[in-house]
Amino acid sequence: MGSIPAARRFLEATTSIASQLETFDATALRGLTILAAYPGRLVARLPLNSARANAYGTAHGGLIATAVDVVSSAALHTVRAASGVSVSLSVDYLAAVPVLGEEDGDGSEAAPSLVFDARVVKAGRSLAVLAVDVRRGSEAGPLVAQGRHTKFVAAQEAAGRRAAAGPRARL
Asked: Directed axis angle between helix 4-21 and helix 61-77, to 10°?
């Protein structure tokens, strides 16, 4: 059975391992923080900077796709013990997001960020379907992308049940 603490541990482990290895994930996921978590839903914020920009100075599409993958997998952890493996992942990009700061109204610049609101649409016996709304700045900010993620979960769930049953169950 999944849980909110399990989802938090998954995200912390994913970002920690990535930063130790200095991989693309480290660049993409550094600073990812959970804003809220509920059964079947997880909301996270990712700050933007020039390392996360494309040649046009906007958030790189690969950055958004990577975060959709990881945040939706964490949302799945709120209801399932294992997050499975990706079968498909798609992202519709609806608006460009500048990575430079935007004026706050008082002349200062606010650090730009993306908010990922991931939901478990269905967690079946073998597949899980997840949806992610990506917004600029806050949960109420403008919608800039939508992601869809399907994961195969049956093999991991079955392996977990066999391991829990002990060695005799494998005979």
From this structure: 140
